[in-house]
């Protein structure tokens, strides 16, 4: 974990400080490399840290969780959306914010279908590239007030004022570094910096979103609905097996870069275990699931999973009547 963290953080930070040494448009290659590294940091470092599984030391976890701030996003909102809503209510419509109705993108068969959705399998990846840009400029603020309104954020008004100010401070510091230093200190054109900034986030956004979608929005995954009493009928662990899919388990290089997120079943069952252990425990999990006649979904390769995701997007986009 330490070696991986050093490598990924180096390739996220070092290209930034090399920007004044390279002329435009070759500097865009540095921004692209930063986008690849940003996604790697998010999946391999930040993700474990914010789950408390990066280290036995909670102080180390807390320190490494700030790598999310280095990407321009809020730790507070991310933990509520991911740790609380997504991991508790995986693929449950209206509860799992990761599959919530995005208007132009539909990830659950239970949301209303518009005419445009039948083409989402063609245009989805263009919008995937905007995900992290949305984190930086809009999503954190919208989520902050949304989670107060729906009760997911149960902090006091005084506490939330402080949280909001921290979110604003993170955004301002992040933009000062990625925009201000190149423009004011290195005398770079703001237009050039903005183009590079967008490329960085477009690359990172696509990688992060695709990796998530290959685990939950592919053929074979369930989108269960609560019964009349409002309960999901499957036991929690079985629910995770029914709504989650692994992919490319044998690809060690991809597993290293993705932070084990191709072992999503193991991650959802044991989010407090560091991802470096997922390959070792995956065979135990699979054997146990099959022993009890439970599903253990997996796609052998990344491209098989990607094709399955595209077919799923197409299928969901053609469902004309919402179930709820």
Model description:
The protein has 324 residues and is mostly helical. It has one domain (2-316). Helices cover 61% and strands 2% of the residues. It is built from 13 helices and 2 strands, in the order αααααααααβαααβα. It has a two-stranded parallel ribbon. Helix 2 runs antiparallel to helix 3 (58-65), helix 2 (27-51) crosses helix 8 and helix 7 (157-185) crosses helix 8. The model has no long low-confidence stretch (mean pLDDT 94).
Topology:
Layout: H1 2-17, H2 27-51, H3 58-65, H4 75-88, H5 120-128, H6 131-149, H7 157-185, H8 190-216, H9 236-243, E1 245-247, H10 252-258, H11 264-269, H12 278-291, E2 297-299, H13 302-316
Parallel strand pairs: 1-2
Helix pairs in contact: 1-2, 2-3, 2-8, 5-8, 7-8, 8-13
Strand and helix order: HHHHHHHHHEHHHEH
Uncertain ranges: none
Total number of domains: 1
End-to-end distance, in Å? 43 Å
Compact description:
With 324 residues, the chain is mainly α. It is 61% helix and 2% strand.
Descriptors:
single chain; 324 residues; mainly alpha
């Amino acid at each position: 974990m330490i070696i991986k963290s050093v490598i990924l953080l180096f390739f996220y930070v070092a290209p930034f400080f090399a920007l004044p040494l390279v002329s435009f448009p070759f500097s865009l290659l540095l921004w692209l490399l930063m986008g690849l590294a940003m996604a790697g940091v998010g999946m391999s470092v930040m993700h474990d840290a914010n789950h408390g599984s990066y280290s036995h030391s909670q102080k180390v976890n807390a320190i490494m969780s700030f790598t999310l701030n280095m990407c321009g996003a809020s730790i507070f909102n991310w933990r509520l959306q991911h740790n609380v809503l997504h991991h508790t209510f995986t693929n449950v419509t209206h509860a799992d914010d990761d599959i919530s109705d995005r208007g132009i993108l539909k990830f659950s068969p239970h949301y209303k279908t518009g005419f445009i959705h039948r083409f989402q399998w063609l245009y989805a990846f263009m919008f995937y590239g905007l995900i992290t840009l949305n984190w930086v400029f809009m999503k954190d603020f919208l989520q902050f007030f949304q989670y107060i309104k729906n009760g997911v954020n149960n902090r006091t008004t005084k506490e939330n004022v402080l949280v909001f100010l921290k979110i604003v401070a993170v955004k301002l510091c992040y933009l000062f570094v990625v925009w201000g230093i190149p423009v004011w200190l290195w005398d770079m054109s703001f237009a050039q910096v903005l183009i590079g900034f967008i490329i960085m986030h477009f690359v990172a956004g696509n990688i992060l979103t695709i990796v998530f979608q290959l685990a939950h929005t592919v053929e074979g995954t369930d989108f269960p609905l609560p019964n009349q009493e409002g309960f999901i009928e499957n036991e929690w662990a079985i629910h995770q097996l029914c709504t989650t899919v692994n992919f490319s388990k044998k690809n060690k290089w991809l597993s290293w870069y993705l932070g084990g997120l191709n072992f999503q079943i193991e991650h959802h069952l044991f989010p407090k275990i560091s991802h470096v252990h997922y390959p070792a425990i995956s065979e135990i999990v699979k054997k146990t699931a099959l022993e009890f006649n439970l599903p253990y979904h997996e796609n052998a390769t990344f491209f098989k999973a990607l094709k399955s995701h595209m077919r799923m997007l197409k299928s969901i986009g053609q469902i004309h009547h919402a179930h709820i």
